[in-house]
Amino acid sequence: MALLFYLLFWVSFSALIFIIHRTSRYRRLRLPPGNLGLPFLGETLQLISAYKTENPEPFIDERVSRFGSLFTTHVFGEPTVFSVDPETNRFILQNEGKLFESSYPSSISNLLGKHSLLLMKGSLHKKMHSLTMSFANSSIIRDHLLVDIDRLVRLNLDSWTDRVFLMEEAKKITFELTMKQLMSFDPGEWTEGLRKEYLLVIEGFFTVPLPIFSTTYRRAIKARTKVAEALSLIVRQRRRESEAGERKNDMLEALLSADDGGFSDEEIVDFLVALLVAGYETTSTIMTLAVKFLTETPLALAQLKEEHEGIRAKKSEGEALKWSDYKSMPFTQCVVNETLRVANIISGVFRRAMTDINIKGYTIPKGWKVFASFRAVHLDHDHFKDARTFNPWRWQTANVFTPFGGGPRLCPGYELARVELSVFLHHLVTSFSWTPAEEDKLVFFPTTRTRKRYPINVHRRNHVKS
Ligand code: HEM
Question: What is the pTM for the complete model shown?
Answer without folding.
Answer: 0.89
